[in-house]
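As noted in the main text, all predictions were made from sequence alone. Below is one such record, for Segregation and condensation protein B.
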Amino acid sequence: MVFIMSDTNNNDSIDLYDESAIVNDAFGNINCVGALEALLFAVGEAVEINKLADSIGVKPKDVENAYEELNKRYDSDDYGIRIIKLDDKLQLCTKNMYYDKLINLVNIPKKYILTDVLLETLSIVAYKQPVTRLEIEQIRGVSCQHAVNKLIEYNLITEVGRLDAPGKPILFGTTDDFLRSFGISSMEDLPVVSSDKIEDFRRQAMEEASLTIET
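Prediction:
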């Protein structure tokens, strides 16, 4: 529940559900910067820019401008938060430098460890999505069930649909957590990977499989 504080010097009460009390200043003008900050703080997760604009009553471009204005303020070391952009969404987050402090206060899991196998599998999903597990295995040349399950557990990939084919195999894609973890705003920011690199993945996977069999 979101509570709106009233002016203690004013005898007029403010309706708890009066949206204008949230986004309008004393002159009746929309304070997009303050409204955006309040909404992202209250929601606590990534929200589409269009939805934020509809909620505040402004254009998406106004939300973009407010986002940039807020982050200029948050660039100061006096602030422990920042807003990140995930494709067409915005989210209010704690700065990375304070992660260890959060662990001391709340029950936040330790950072996960990404092995070479997990990174290779994640890279294939990122560049080939939506992709089935069979397609991943065809690229790597070995079974990837454990790697896929681990990446799902880490919430770096997720089910995004079903392939229209016999058996309706699951299609996998990356998540907002993937973007957050690697510090990118959208999939368009991913570096270009050559076909030779994909072949390197396949060769390394085959070498790993060979070593496993020998041992």
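The two ends are 58 Å apart (CA to CA). Strands lie at 47-48, 81-86, 89-94, 157-162, 170-174. These features were considered when defining construct boundaries for the mutagenesis experiments described in Section 2.9.
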